[in-house]
UniProtKB/TrEMBL annotation:
Name the UniProt record assigns to this protein: PKD/Chitinase domain-containing protein
Pfam family, one: K319L-like_PKD
Natural source organism: Pseudoalteromonas spongiae
UniProt xrefs under SMART domains: PKD
Annotated InterPro entries: Ig-like_fold, PKD/Chitinase_dom
Domain of life from the UniProt record: Bacteria
Location of the PKD/Chitinase domain: 43-134, 141-230
Length: 919
C-alpha cells in the first residue's frame, strides 16, 4: 500500500505540474530529491558551494554542504553532467577537485552531486562553472626542487621555482595529494615547510603545487617523496638469576646481537635490553657458564619468547621478572628444556618453539633436570663418569633417551642419590597469584591411568573440583612461600577404585584424594606444566582406612579456561579429530573420535577402532564454547569443549562430559581437518619419521618404496601401502607370506589381513602431516580383533636416506649371526625390564648364544652409534649403509677404528637381519 500511495501522488502532481509544483513538494529546477523509501525517514539536503568561473588548465575545488535532519550522510557521488575533458579527483568525498582542460573560448560545464543518507534516501544538486579562455595570456611554468627521500619525524623545505613569460606569479598553493604521515605549512608561499610524523612503515607520498599568474593562468606539478620509517628501539630490563652461575657473564642473544651482564654473588642479574624494533620477531636465548667444579665448561641455556613478546610481558614498568615469565631465570629446568627441543639452534619463530613444546613431557623434563643437577654438583665431591665416547655434558644432553638410560645407571652406582623433587623447587615457576575466580583444567601428562580434573578457585581461598570419574568436592587452596599451589579437600573424594595389595592381601580398595601440591616446572602458552604430588589414603570396601597417607605423582599441566580464545559458529563446521573422548568397555584407555559438524547444526560421530558410529547428534555454540550432543533424554551425552589454545595445526580443547545427569571431567585435544584432499601416491613414497602421541614422545620410522611396499621401523614386516578413495593412507600386513605377491594385487579371499594401519590426514604443513593413526588387528578368520587410534605426526624426509641409528630403528631390530659351524647367535634390541626391581623399561640388547647361554645388556645411542657390552667387552655398532633389503653395520670394540672385517651386511627380509658367516 505504501508503494502504491507514493506512485499515485507522483502521477497526480505530474499532470498538474505548472500549477501545483510547489504545493506537491517539488523544488527548484537545479535541485532534486529522491522519493522517500521509508515514510519515517526524512530526505537529506545538499547545496554545492564554489566559484562560478575559473581559468582554463586550473584546479578548482567545489564543496557539497549536505545535512540530514534525522540521520547522517553516508555517501557522496560527484559527476560531470555536461562538458568534456574534465578530471574529477576525490569524487566520493564532500569536496571534489576539478582539473580543467585548455579551451578555445569560454566554455560552460555542469557538475552534479548526489548524497545518500544512512536510510537510503538521496538528494541532488547541480552547479554551473564557466571555464575562461586565456588566449591572450601565456600560462606560467613551475618545477619543485627538494629531496626525494627523508626519515620520519623530520622537517625540511620544498621550493617551487616558477616563471611567467608575459607577467608575474601572484599566488602559490601547496597540497598533499596522496600518502600519510606528512604535514604541510606555509602552503601559500614559494617554499613549503614539510614535517614528517612517526610512522610504522615506509610511506610513498605525493605533494603538488599550483601557481597562478597575473592573468589568471595556472600551472601545476607534483613531487614524489619517500618517507622512511626509522628503526625504533625496545628498551626494557630483564631481571633473573642463573643457578651455578655466580659472578659470571650472562648473555642474551637476539638474532645477530648479544647483550651481556654479570651475575652477583647470588647468581642474580639485571640486563638492560635496548635493541631496534626490527629485532622484535627474533627469538631470544639466554646463556651463562656454570660454576661447577666438575663441568666448568658447561653453559646453562634458556630459549625464550620473541623480543617483542618479552617486551609486552614486561608491562608498563618495562621490567620483566621471573614471576612474570619463568624463562628469565636460567638453571637445570630451563637448560634441560632447551636440550629437549628439536633442531634447537635453528628455531627462529614462536610457532616452531610451540611445536617443540607439544612433544615435551613434564616427567621427562624433571628427570633430565635432576640428571643435570646431579652431574654439575657431583656425589659428595665425586664427579659422575660420562659414557664411553661422551666427553662433555653437551654431548650427553643431545639425546633424551641417553639421559634417561644414563640416569638409571647413576642411581645403580650411587644409591644415595634420590629423585627428590625438592631440588627443583628453587628453579621452577612460582604459581601466579589468583586475584579473580579462575576455571582451571588439569591435563595429566600421560592419560593411561591418571585422571583429569577441573578446578574452580576463588580469590578468598575456597574452591571446588570435578574429577573425570564423576566425583566432585569442595576444597581450599593456598600458594606457599616457594610458589607451590596447595589444594586441600574439605572431604576426601574418590580418585579411583581398584584392587590393591596391602599387607600381602589382595582386595578391593578405594583411593581417596586428600591434598594436592602442584610444583610448576615451565610455562608454554596458556598452560603451566609441572608435577601434581597427591596425598591419598586407601579405604577398603567396608569403609575402613587401610593406609592413611601415601603419595601419587602425576605430571601434567594447568590451563586457564577463561583465558581461552573464543570461536564463533562459523569456525566449527567441518571434520574434527577429538582425542580422549570414549572409553571402550573394560579398558583403561580412552579412544578418539571423528566428528563431522554440519552447517545446519547436525553432526555425526565415528570411533574408528571400536566400530561405533552415530548420526543422532547435533552441535551448538554456547558462550563461545562448542557443545556436541548425542542422544536425548536420559541417554543424552553432552560434550562441552573449551578452547585452550589455537595454533597452525588446530585447536586444543578440554571437555566437560554430561551423561544421564552425571557430569565428569575429561581431557581432550581437537584438531580441525585443514585439508580436503587427503593423501595421494606422490605424498606417500619416501621416508617418514613418525612422532606419536600428544602426551608421550616416541619416534619411529616408516619407509614406503616406489612399488608401494612399506616398512615400519627398519626391519619390520612388509606391508602393502595404498591410498583409498577417501585419501586415507592404508598399510596392510598379510598373514600368509607365501601368497603375499598375490595379495598385493588381488584380495580374492586367499589371504587374511594380519594388521592394518590407517593414516587419515587432518592437517598438512610443509611435509609435516597431522594424522589420526588407527591400528587394527585381525584374526585368522579375517575378523577385526582389536583397534586403537591416536593423534600423531608423520614428517616426510627428503628421499630415503638413513645414515645412522636412532632408537626407533633399533627398538625392534633383530640380528642373526650365522657361525661357520652352522650354529647361530641371535641379537635382539628392544625395550625390556632388565630386573624385577625395575619399574621403568630400559633399552636393552638381548643375546642368545649358540651354546644356549643368554645375556642381557643395556645399550644407548650417541650420535647414531649404539654402545653396549658383550662378554665383558665394550662394543659399538654403527650404521654404514642402508638399502632396501640390506643393512650394513660395523660392529667392533668401543674406541677402535672400523675396519672392513668389522662390517657386516644384514639381510633384513622377514623381520630379522641375517648376518652371514665370516669368510
Amino acid at each position: 500500500m505504501k508503494s502504491t500511495h507514493s506512485s499515485f501522488r507522483f502521477l497526480a502532481c505530474s499532470t498538474a505540474l505548472s500549477v501545483f509544483l510547489y504545493g506537491c513538494g517539488g523544488g527548484s529546477s537545479d535541485k532534486d530529491t529522491s522519493p522517500n523509501p521509508d515514510q519515517g525517514n526524512r530526505v537529506p539536503t545538499v547545496t554545492i558551494n564554489g566559484d562560478n568561473s575559473a581559468q582554463e588548465a586550473s584546479v578548482v575545488t567545489l564543496n557539497a554542504a549536505a545535512s540530514d535532519s534525522d540521520g547522517s550522510i553516508s555517501k557522496y557521488a560527484w559527476s560531470i553532467t555536461s562538458g568534456e575533458n574534465v578530471t574529477l579527483n576525490n569524487s566520493d568525498q564532500a569536496s571534489v577537485d576539478l582539473t580543467l582542460p585548455d579551451v578555445n573560448g569560454d566554455t560552460q560545464i555542469t557538475i552534479s552531486v548526489t548524497v545518500t543518507d544512512n536510510d537510503g534516501a538521496t538528494a541532488r544538486d547541480e552547479h554551473t562553472l564557466t571555464i575562461v579562455d586565456n588566449a591572450d595570456n601565456q600560462a606560467p611554468t613551475v618545477v619543485i626542487n627538494g629531496v626525494a627521500e627523508v626519515d620520519e619525524q623530520s622537517e625540511f623545505n620544498l621550493t617551487a621555482t616558477a616563471s611567467d613569460n608575459d607577467g608575474e606569479i601572484v599566488s602559490y598553493f601547496w597540497q598533499l595529494i596522496s600518502g600519510e604521515g606528512v604535514t604541510l605549512s606555509d602552503t601559500d608561499k614559494a617554499q613549503v615547510k614539510v614535517t614528517t610524523s612517526d610512522i610504522d612503515e615506509d610511506q610513498q607520498v605525493t605533494i603538488a603545487v599550483m601557481v597562478t599568474d597575473d592573468g589568471g593562468a595556472v600551472a601545476m606539478t607534483q613531487h614524489q617523496l619517500l618517507v622512511k620509517a626509522s628503526a625504533q628501539t625496545q628498551v626494557f630490563t630483564l631481571k633473573g638469576r642463573v643457578n651455578n652461575g655466580v659472578n659470571s657473564a650472562v648473555n642474551l642473544t637476539v638474532g645477530d646481537k648479544t647483550v651481556t651482564a654479570t651475575t652477583n654473588g647470588s647468581g642474580e642479574f639485571s640486563l638492560l635490553v635496548e635493541l631496534e624494533e626490527s629485532y622484535d620477531s627474533h627469538l631470544v636465548k639466554l646463556s651463562a657458564p656454570s660454576n661447577s667444579v666438575f663441568f666448568p665448561e658447561f653453559n646453562f641455556v634458556s630459549q625464550l619468547l620473541t623480543l617483542g613478546e618479552l617486551k609486552q610481558r614486561a608491562g608498563n614498568d618495562n621490567i620483566l621478572t621471573e614471576d612474570e615469565y619463568s624463562g628469565v631465570s636460567v638453571g637445570a629446568i630451563s637448560t634441560a628444556l632447551y636440550y629437549m627441543l628439536d633442531d634447537r639452534e635453528n628455531i627462529t619463530t614462536t610457532e616452531q618453539l610451540e611445536n617443540n613444546y607439544d612433544r615435551i613431557y613434564s616427567g621427562e623434563l624433571a628427570i633430565n633436570a635432576n640428571v643435570l643437577h646431579m652431574l654439575l654438583n657431583g656425589n659428595q665431591g665425586e664427579t659422575y663418569p660420562l659414557p664411553t665416547g661422551v666427553t662433555t655434558l653437551g654431548q650427553l644432553f643431545e639425546n633424551d633417551l641417553l639421559i634417561r638410560e644414563y640416569r638409571e645407571r647413576m642411581l645403580d652406582s650411587y644409591p644415595s642419590v634420590t629423585d627428590d623433587n625438592q631440588k627443583l623447587i628453587a628453579e621452577t615457576t612460582t604459581y601466579p597469584a589468583i586475584n579473580e575466580t579462575q576455571q582451571l583444567v588439569f591435563s595429566p601428562g600421560f592419560n593411561l591411568y591418571t585422571i583429569g580434573r577441573h578446578y574452580t578457585l576463588n580469590p578468598d581461598g575456597t574452591g571446588s573440583t570435578v574429577l573425570e570419574n564423576g566425583n566432585s568436592g569442595e576444597l581450599t587452596w593456598s600458594i606457599d612461600a616457594a610458589g607451590i599451589l596447595i589444594l586441600e579437600y574439605k572431604v576426601p573424594i574418590t580418585l579411583r577404585m581398584g584392587v590393591h595389595h596391602i599387607n600381602e592381601k589382595t582386595d578391593a580398595y578405594e583411593e581417596q584424594l586428600l591434598t594436592s601440591a602442584f610444583y610448576t616446572v615451565f610455562q608454554r602458552g596458556n598452560t603451566i606444566e609441572g608435577v601434581l604430588d597427591e596425598s591419598i589414603r586407601l579405604v577398603d570396601k567396608n569403609g575402613t582406612v587401610v593406609e592413611s597417607n601415601y603419595d601419587n605423582v602425576v605430571y601434567g599441566g594447568f590451563t586457564e579456561k577463561q583465558n581461552a580464545a573464543k570461536l564463533s559458529e562459523a569456525d566449527f563446521p567441518g571434520t574434527w579429530f577429538i582425542d580422549d573422548v570414549f572409553t571402550p568397555e573394560g579398558l583403561y584407555f580412552t579412544e578418539p573420535a571423528i566428528a563431522n559438524l554440519m552447517a545446519d547444526g547436525s553432526a555425526s560421530i565415528e570411533v574408528p577402532s571400536v566400530d561405533f558410529y552415530t548420526n543422532n547428534a547435533k552441535w551448538q555454540v554456547t558462550n563461545g564454547n562448542l557443545e556436541i550432543i548425542s542422544g536425548s533424554g536420559d541417554n543424552e551425552t553432552r560434550f562441552t569443549y573449551y578452547v585452550a589454545h589455537k595454533d597452525e595445526i588446530g585447536y586444543a580443547f578440554v571437555a566437560n562430559v554430561t551423561n544421564g545427569g552425571q557430569q565428569f571431567a575429561r581431557n581432550g585435544i581437537m584438531v580441525k581437518q585443514q585439508t580436503a584432499t587427503g593423501f595421494n601416491e606422490n605424498d606417500i613414497v619416501g621416508h617418514f619419521k613418525e612422532v606419536s602421541g600428544q602426551r608421550i614422545h616416541y619416534t619411529g620410522n616408516l619407509i614406503i618404496y616406489d612399488d608401494l611396499i612399506a616398512r615400519g621401523d627398519i626391519d619390520w614386516e612388509d606391508k602393502v601401502a595404498r591410498v583409498d578413495e577417501n585419501g586415507v593412507l592404508q598399510l596392510e600386513t598379510y598373514l600368509d607370506r607365501d601368497t603375499l605377491e598375490l595379495c598385493r594385487t588381488n584380495d580374492d579371499g586367499r589371504c587374511f589381513l594380519s594388521k592394518q594401519t590407517s593414516y587419515r590426514l587432518f592437517a598438512n604443513n610443509t611435509n609435516q602431516y597431522v594424522v589420526m593413526h588407527t591400528e587394527s588387528g585381525f584374526g585368522s578368520n579375517g575378523e577385526r580383533a582389536y583397534g586403537i587410534s591416536k593423534i600423531t605426526r608423520i614428517v616426510k624426509q627428503d628421499g630415503i636416506n638413513i645414515t645412522r641409528f636412532d632408537y626407533g630403528m633399533l627398538n625392534s631390530l633383530r640380528v642373526r649371526e650365522h657361525l661357520p659351524n652352522g650354529q647361530k647367535n641371535d641379537y635382539f634390541f628392544s625395550e625390556l625390564y632388565i630386573s624385577d626391581e625395575e619399574s621403568e623399561p630400559r633399552y636393552a640388547l638381548s643375546v642368545s648364544y649358540a651354546n644356549d647361554e643368554h645375556e642381557v645388556t643395556p645399550f644407548y645411542l650417541d650420535n647414531g652409534i649404539a654402545y653396549f657390552t658383550l662378554a665383558g667387552k665394550s662394543m659399538q655398532m654403527s650404521l654404514e649403509q642402508f638399502e632396501r633389503d640390506t643393512l650394513t653395520v660395523c660392529l667392533h670394540e668401543a674406541g677402535a677404528t672400523c675396519t672392513d672385517a668389522d662390517k657386516k651386511q644384514l639381510d633384513m627380509r622377514w623381520n630379522v637381519a641375517e648376518m652371514p658367516p665370516a669368510q
